[in-house]
Structure formats: C-alpha cells, structure tokens
Inverse folding.
C-alpha cells in the first residue's frame, strides 16, 4: 500500500470514526431519556429504582456490610475486618441455587433442585415468600428451607390468610417504600406538620434498635406483625452494626429507613403519654415499648389507644420486646391475629422465616460451617450458654448444670468410664454438638470429655463451637454477624438446650420450630446445684418479658390464662407471657 492510498484510507477512517461517535452519542441519549421517562411514569418500585434513588448512605446489603465491616471497631479498638475469619465470603452456588455439596449429599442436592423448580414456580417456604426474587443476591432464600427440612417438610404451614396478608403488604410497601413518590411526598408533609394531625396515603412504622441482636430480631418480628395489622410500611433503622446481616425481605423494595430522613434523629416529637393526655393524634409519634419501662406504654393493648395511634401517619417505635401477645389482647386485632396464625405458637416461626434471610455473607458462614461439621451427623444438638453475670458465675457450676441437664434428658450420652476403647465401634452413630457461648470453656470441656472416653451407647460425639467473643460488643458489625450465624446454626439443630431469659435462644428456637430445654438461670453463685437443672419449654414462641399489668379499665391483670386461654406464664420468667397452641 503506497502513501497516497494510506492517506486516503486514513481520511476515510477518520470520517467513519466521527460518524460512529456521533451515532453512538445519540443512541446513548435516546436510551437514557427513555429509561428515565419509564422510571418516572411507573408507580412501581423497580430494583433499578432502588439502586439509583436510594440515598448514598443507605447502600445495598452487600455493600453495607463491607463498608461497615471496614469501619467498625470493637470496644477494644480492634478492627473488625482484621478479625474476620473468612477472607472471601462468597458462596459457590449453581444456577439452580444448589450449593457446593459433597457426594453423600446427592439426594439433598436433587431435592434442592426439584424444590426450587416445582411446577415451574418457586414455592419458597410453602408460599410464605413471594416469587420473583433474584436468586444470586440472596442465596439463603432459596437454600435454607432445604437445610432446615432435610428429612421431612415443615410441620407448620402458613395459613392462606397470612399468605394473602403478606402479598397485600408487599404491594403497600412497593407503593410507599423509600424512594417512591408517596414516600417523598409524605416526608415533606410530615416535616411541616409533625405536631398536628395530618392525613397521608401511606403510613409508616419505623423500628429503632435497643439491646443485643436477639432482642432486636424478636422485636422487629413483633413490629412487622403490628405493621401487617395496621397497614403500615415497616422501615428499620439500621446503623452500620446491623448492615449486611439480612437480605432485603420485600420484593423490589427496601426496608432500610433512609439516613437522610428528617426523622432519623427525631427531636420534638410527641410521645405516647402526651398523645393520651391530649387525646388527639399527632403526625409523628414516638412509642417506647422497651423492657426498662415499668408498664410500657400503658393501654397500648387497648382499643381506645389504638384508635388514636391508628391516625398517626409516622410511628417511631423503640423496643426490644416481643410484644406479639399484646396484639392478641387488642380486641379489634384478635380475629385477624387468629386468622393469620391459627396455630398460635407459630407467629415468630413464620414471621422469622419471612423476614430474616441471612445475607450471602452470613449464609456463606452458616452453610460452610453446617456442611463441614454438622451435615453428616445423625443428630444435631444445639447448646446455648449465656451468662448474664459472667464475673460472678463460676464456669464449673455452669458446666455441671449443662451436663446434668443434657445427661438427664439423654440429649448427650454418658461416658463409659471403664473402657478406653469403644467395643461397639462398627455401627456407631454420630452426634454433632453445636455450642454457642461467649466463652470457650464449654466447647473445649465437652470436646475433651468425649475424646478421652467412649460413650456407653457407642455413639461418637463431635463438639463444635464457632466463636467465643468473650463479651458482648456494641456497634460491631462482625460481632453481630457471628451472633446471627450462631443463632441460625442453632436453629438448624434437631434438639436445643438454651439459657433461660435469653432472646438469643428465643430466635434459634423460633426459627427452628423447636421447644428447647431451658437451663436454670444461674446468677452469681446463688444456687449451684438447682434441681431440676433444666425444664422443657411448652412453646417455640419467644417470651414477652413485660406484658401489660393492667386491663383496659385499669384493673391489674393477675392471671393471663383465665382471660387469654392461649397464653401462659413463661417457664423461664414467670412475670412474662407467651403464646401456646391450644384448641379453644
Ligand atoms: P440476650 O441478652 O441473651 O437476650 O441476647 P441478645 O442477643 O439480645 O444479646 C446478647 C448479645 O451478646 C448477642 O447479640 C451477641 O452479641 C452476644 N452473645 C451472647 N451470647 C453469644 C454467643 O453464644 N455467641 C455469640 N457469637 N455472641 C453472643
């Protein structure tokens, strides 16, 4: 090719490039304009919409976790990231959502695939969950059922009424959730009229946290039930320590309360007491149902208070309590509660399965731990040991308590102290023991015990404790991630021993549908050898620690059971009440 030809080719090339650049730019402009017009025209809340319109500090769950894991530090100033046990938390899932399972789990893998594809639709958690979720952003939503119900399907089916309420709720959330036209309009209106009463199309319930993760989870579940009953949109105020633990529960929307809201740190907001005193409803109300209150928000369980609360468009709820029993007490809610939950002791079980799906990071930890240590056992026993006064409670006394409970109820086998080798080795079954505690002593002691001697039943016992954090840490994302992982793993066990009064244990028993053996609560060294050491619970529901003390006429309530036959005093806390499944 000569120079002239080369020049001509070069000129032609320049012309073509310029034309191409112009055409490309025009195409991009047309596409963007079209997308934006669709965006504003549609009422619906598409996934794109969330990503584009969410305020920059309310990130997606994945990003939220990574950000907060980087930024948080524990009380000793240690970076969470440096103590993170897994470098990369991705879960290796196939297209079908089936995970990296080992050869012996082939049946499970097949079941998993057929479950997800049953009739060409996704029947997740017996229809409890909406279909249409993206699989890769929340793998646990598609896999956890199969971990939970490996041997048989769930004995507790959600009622069709609950399912229809949930589908209806999802519509409301989609229409009114953060980023929508309704949300933005309501926020503007409320900022102007927070003390006066205002009418809005959408009403909100903002859950705000108190105490540890167990308290937070059970109170979020209660808040959601209240939102369902009152057609409110549930939003959760998550700081960095809570980001990235759960998947978004509502299809094509977010439940994260945007940080740029004028009510993120509300000031000058009306309280429940002042509302009752004035007998009129403001637009924004702060409701405190925390356990530190003597008689929290007296008459919350009464229709006359609910009439006032109903008119409040924006309710900010501070609670660490599972106040679901009080919702059954409210006459105008009772029928709906019964229709939603005909098996009354399954409220947390269903609501928990609906709301709390471990994020991919959490599910990576849970499923790998499960597959590595628990999956191949014949039986899984979960032990949760919570010390409320660790400095004055001797570990030996707690260990004695744990052993006498587990041996007495044949949850763990006795040791064969006469032999050092198991004579029935050939068909010995395997028991996996999952220990959850802030302290390493319990897992270590049990492990050593079952390694040193054979058992009289010939069973092999493997003991696994995922972490021992030493103490409860606040504002620490990774600490909460570990706690969530352990609650969830406990819920995958066949039998549970938990500690009295611990909401950490309540979450595990509720998700697992298990009635645990409750360890007697050792406080200090008061009673070192209580008898019985533990007692079986009668219900899988969490205990409501501070139920109302008065009826709606102001008389003190003495016996819950006579007024509410499906409530009983809690085994672990006699002043508390919990729901029980009785036919009335
Ligand atoms: P409760 O105080 O027992 O009712 O349970 P909470 O979950 O509300 O608060 C206790 C907190 O202490 C947990 O959320 C964890 O942060 C921490 N914690 C207590 N026990 C354990 C445990 O066994 N494992 C882990 N990882 N953390 C625990």
């Amino acid at each position: 090719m000569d120079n002239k030809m080369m020049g001509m080719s070069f000129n032609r090339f320049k012309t073509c490039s310029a034309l191409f650049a112009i055409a490309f730019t025009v195409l991009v402009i047309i596409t963007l304009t079209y997308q934006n017009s669709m965006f504003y025209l549609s009422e619906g809340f598409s996934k794109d919409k969330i990503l584009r319109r969410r305020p920059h500090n309310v990130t997606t769950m994945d990003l939220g976790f990574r950000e907060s894991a980087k930024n948080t530090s524990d009380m000793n100033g240690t970076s969470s990231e440096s103590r993170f046990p897994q470098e990369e938390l991705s879960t290796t899932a196939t297209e079908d959502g089936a995970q990296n399972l080992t050869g012996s789990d082939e049946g499970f893998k097949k079941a998993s695939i057929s479950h997800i594809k049953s009739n060409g639709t996704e029947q997740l958690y017996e229809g409890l969950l909406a279909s249409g979720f993206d699989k890769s952003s929340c793998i646990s939503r598609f896999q956890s059922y199969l971990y939970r119900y490996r041997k048989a399907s769930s004995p507790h089916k959600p009622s069709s009424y609950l399912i229809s309420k949930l589908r209806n709720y999802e519509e409301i959330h989609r229409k009114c959730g953060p980023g929508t036209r309704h949300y933005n309009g309501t926020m503007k209106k409320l900022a102007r009229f927070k003390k006066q009463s205002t009418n809005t199309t959408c009403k909100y319930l903002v859950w705000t946290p108190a105490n540890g993760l167990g308290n937070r989870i059970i109170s979020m579940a209660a808040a959601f039930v209240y939102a369902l009953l009152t057609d409110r949109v549930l939003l959760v105020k998550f700081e960095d320590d809570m980001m990235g633990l759960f998947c978004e529960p509502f299809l094509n929307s977010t439940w994260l309360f945007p940080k740029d809201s004028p009510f993120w740190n509300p000031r000058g907001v009306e309280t429940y007491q002042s509302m009752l005193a004035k007998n009129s409803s403001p637009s924004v109300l702060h409701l405190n149902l925390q356990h530190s209150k003597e008689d929290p928000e007296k008459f919350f369980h009464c229709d006359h208070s609910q009439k006032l609360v109903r008119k409040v468009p924006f309710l900010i709820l501070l609670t660490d309590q599972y106040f679901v029993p009080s919702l059954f007490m409210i006459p105008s809610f009772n029928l709906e509660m019964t229709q939603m939950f005909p098996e009354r002791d399954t409220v947390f079980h269903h609501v928990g399965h609906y709301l709390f799906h471990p994020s991919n990071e959490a599910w990576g930890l849970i499923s790998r731990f499960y597959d590595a240590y628990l999956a191949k056992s014949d039986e899984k026993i979960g032990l949760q040991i919570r010390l409320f006064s660790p400095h004055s409670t001797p570990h030996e006394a707690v260990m004695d308590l744990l052993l006498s409970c587990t041996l007495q109820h044949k949850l763990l086998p006795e040791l064969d102290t006469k032999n050092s080798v198991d004579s029935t080795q050939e068909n010995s079954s395997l028991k996996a023991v999952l220990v959850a505690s802030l302290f390493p002593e319990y897992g270590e002691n049990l492990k050593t015990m079952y390694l040193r001697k054979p058992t009289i039943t010939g069973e092999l016992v493997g003991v696994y404790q995922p972490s021992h954090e030493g103490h409860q840490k606040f504002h620490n994302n990774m600490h909460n991630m570990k706690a969530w992982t352990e609650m969830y793993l406990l819920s995958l066990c066949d039998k549970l021993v938990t500690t009295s009064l611990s909401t950490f244990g309540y979450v595990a028993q509720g998700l697992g549908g298990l009635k645990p053996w409750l360890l007697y609560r050792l406080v200090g060294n008061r009673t070192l050898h209580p008898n019985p050491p533990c007692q079986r619970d009668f219900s899988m529901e969490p205990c409501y620690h501070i139920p109302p003390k008065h009826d709606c006429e102001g008389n003190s309530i003495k016996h819950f059971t006579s007024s509410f036959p499906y409530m009983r005093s809690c085994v672990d806390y006699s002043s508390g009440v919990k729901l029980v499944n009785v036919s009335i």
In short: The pocket of guanosine-5'-diphosphate is lined by residues 211-215, 386, 436-438, 467, 469, 472, 479, 482-483, 486, 502-504 (CB under 6 Å). The two ends are 97 Å apart (CA to CA).
